[in-house]
Amino acid sequence: MKCKYCGKEIVDDSMFCEHCGAKIKEEHLPRNARNALFVELKKRALTDLKGNWKKVIPVTLVFGLCLCAVCYIDMVIEKNLMLESLSKPTEMFFSDCVTNVITLILSLIPIGYSFTLIFLNLIRGIKDRMINQLFSLFKNYRKSVETVFMVNLYLSLWHLLMFVPGIIKYYAYSMTYYISMDHPDYSVDECIESSKRMMYGHKWELFVLQLSFIGWILLGLVTLGIGLMWVIPYMETTKAHFYETIKVKKENNAHQL
């Protein structure tokens, strides 16, 4: 692609022109191309999950129980603080603060980090001992805790400022865990910065991709959450394929220089 300001060749999805320094506007795939990509990613996800549902459902159940425990702890703490005695805006602010603090504390048990990486391993052919993989974070505990803590800290700060910037940053940081796995030599900040560069021009695509599962999510909720044992692995496997796709694209663009 070319910089529209100076006309010189730059790497696709560049955030800034390396020649004139101008900021490059994010460009998104046309709707037809985006939809075709989503269909292909979901098809790959279902192919990988075929024959492996008996492995992914138990690990999803364990992860879900952990999330329920977190929500319960959050609810009990907020109730004991008697936030309802405050004015509505103040109550909402303090409630968000309490939730963020609890999230940071629970970063000491970064099970969500391992859960995400299980599905990256799945699409790469590592399909055994998924429950063990879920607790494999203790093998490299410090790195996983630092990664989860810093991502949650940055997101908490952004959410305290405004809701929409927090959502944007969520998608900017969404590839951090994958990058941390692929580049164990990277520091946490390097993983986050790499995620931001990788997701430049792709945040909207991932948002729409996840939104396309809304029907399955509602169906899972109607079944009292039982259906989510299938929906969540489907979503996570598709997201892992999304990461692989944009990673290959970035690598190809780099080789073209």
Number of strands: 0
Low-confidence stretches: none
Helix content: 55-70%
Distance between the termini: 11 Å
Rg over CA atoms:
20 Å
Protein architecture, described:
It is a single chain. The chain is an all-alpha fold and 257 residues long. It has one domain (31-247). The protein contains twelve helices and no strands. Helix 4 (111-123) packs across helix 12 (228-255).
Descriptive terms for the model:
single chain, about 260 residues, mainly alpha, 12 helices, about 70% helix
Care to give the gist of this entry?
The chain is built from twelve helices and no strands. The protein has 257 residues and is an all-alpha fold. The chain has one domain (31-247).
Topology:
Layout: H1 31-49, H2 53-80, H3 88-105, H4 111-123, H5 130-134, H6 141-161, H7 163-172, H8 176-182, H9 188-199, H10 203-211, H11 214-222, H12 228-255
